[in-house]
Write a sequence for this structure.
């Protein structure tokens, strides 16, 4: 069986948890990292404000390595894009070919 090497964009929320559950049922997906953007000033998940300590506990209990992308409190779009590109290039260099999102209500991400 050929595996798709993936990162899973983890927000720590219920939609993310449900999407991850479904992905873990698919034997052709190999999820290498739970990727989360963290507000560097507040040490909280950028999307939901969950504390970093809880984020770490979530990843440990799931058993998938956590990969944090640290962002300043109010990054501009260029800074955000440059930071994300740096990390995505690292993933590509590791052979990761897919990114999974659990934002089930965002039409642009579904597309």
């Amino acid at each position: 069986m050929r595996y798709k090497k993936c990162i899973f964009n983890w927000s720590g929320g219920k939609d993310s948890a449900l999407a991850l559950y479904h992905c873990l049922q698919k034997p052709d997906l190999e999820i290498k990292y739970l990727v989360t953007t963290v507000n560097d000033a507040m040490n909280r998940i950028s999307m939901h404000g969950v504390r970093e300590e809880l984020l770490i506990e979530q990843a440990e209990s799931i058993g998938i390595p956590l990969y944090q992308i640290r962002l300043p409190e109010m990054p501009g779009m260029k800074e955000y894009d440059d930071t994300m590109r740096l990390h995505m290039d690292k993933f590509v260099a590791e052979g990761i070919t897919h990114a999974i999102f659990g934002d089930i209500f965002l039409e642009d991400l579904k597309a």
Notes: Helices lie at 14-24, 52-62, 77-93, 107-110. Residues 43 and 73 are 10 Å apart (CA to CA). The longest strand covers residues 29-39.
